[in-house]
Amino acid sequence: MTIEAKKCGGVQIFQSVANTTRRSTTKQNVVAEYMRSREVYRGETVAILVDAFRHTHAYMKSCREDRNDSCVASDLIPFRVLFFLSHFHSDHYNGITGGWNHGTIYASRGTANILCWRLGIPESRVKRMDFCVAYTFSLKNGALLYETTWEEEEWRCSDEFFSVTLIPAGHCPGSVMFLFRSPVFGTVLHTGDFRFTREQPNSSLLPHVPRMPHFQKEIDMMANPVLKSIAGKVDVLFLDNTFCDERFNFPSRADSLREVNQAILSVFRDHTSSLQGVTQEMTARGHEAKEHAISVAVLIGTYFIGKERIAVSIQENFLPLGAEDSTCNVVPTYVSPEKYESLRQLEYYREHFMALPRREGEVKGGGSTLEVVTKHAVRLPQDTLSCSSMVARDLFSSLDPVEVSTKEIAHYLTIFLVPLSSVTYPVIAAACGGGPSDGGVAVPRKRV
């Protein structure tokens, strides 16, 4: 074993060179393993990384050292790393802070907005990217040269350039896949986290699917022209294999949404049947039937970004009464102020959501919570579990009222998309109509 002696403050320190080398090798292995699924390309002057924001110093140091060993220092072009972020979930952006100074971060518009707002990244260090656009970069110095509308037949690229195109990933608002193309490294598809459904429903039965705003041009993945153009032509695939374990049978998003909507419908119907029985018994005894109300509050546990489509699906199935004659055509979903701001930054269905007060003390009117939330009378959709696994409206064959006598029974729905700890009992009690002031029927809450 080689021992290296060093002097520090007059004291001679003996250090094992072998141990130092071992620690250095271990660190290099950690960085190499981390980058293995994130490094799209690494050349003499440019590297392309996706969702790789940890070990940045070590990686860039390694790149420069490797290049210095093979190049003349005076001829060197500054080494540049291009950072791409697929979506704003912590396991992907981990390593980004407000003091980020390693280079521009390229992301979808929604994700870029969140980066600047949530993490305080300066606008100058973020590049907002759109769908259906081919961005062409230099492989010599990493500069973004120009942007063109994506066209399959027109794609041409010399050895000195590469292009990148964004594809909707279907994972969460703002999530994308990256398609990289260059004669140097071929065609590379990095999926990030994505959801791909194999089913191809009849086009005449396609439901009204909650879509991203117009600037993101979300397209059905099966018909996405960019994906279709590279079928059988991908040289390297970075694949999200979260659900690739054959031991499990994971439901599709459509199946999950159907279960949620069916659970809510079941709560309404179960209590409707009970109340109808009570009403019939009172009528038989000669008592005047009174109007009853069933109020259901749905709490959807959520991440900072995620689960929004569940709320939109519920809104599309349980339409408010008189929606045709009103400016309010959906039951609003209540969210925390921070969640509402994130939806505003993402430009995702902001008009479908309403922010709760920041603190309970902000509620006016002598502590009444009725000013915080408003319950909405809704129509119940038909129950057709035998239908195909469509999303939203086609989960049920019709949005006509349920064919049962519910003349004396009103159905009210309130939706919350916030961490459960943020919703206080008084707010839920008001939403469920359980207070003595409104004569409502207390309905056991079912977690869906």
From TrEMBL:
Q: What is the top-level taxon of the source organism?
A: Eukaryota
Q: Which UniProt keywords apply?
A: Exonuclease, Hydrolase, Nuclease
Name the InterPro entries for this protein.
Answer: RibonucZ/Hydroxyglut_hydro
**An example Gene Ontology biological process:** interstrand cross-link repair
The terms under GO molecular function for this entry are:
5'-3' DNA exonuclease activity; damaged DNA binding
Protein's name according to its UniProt entry: Metallo-beta-lactamase domain-containing protein
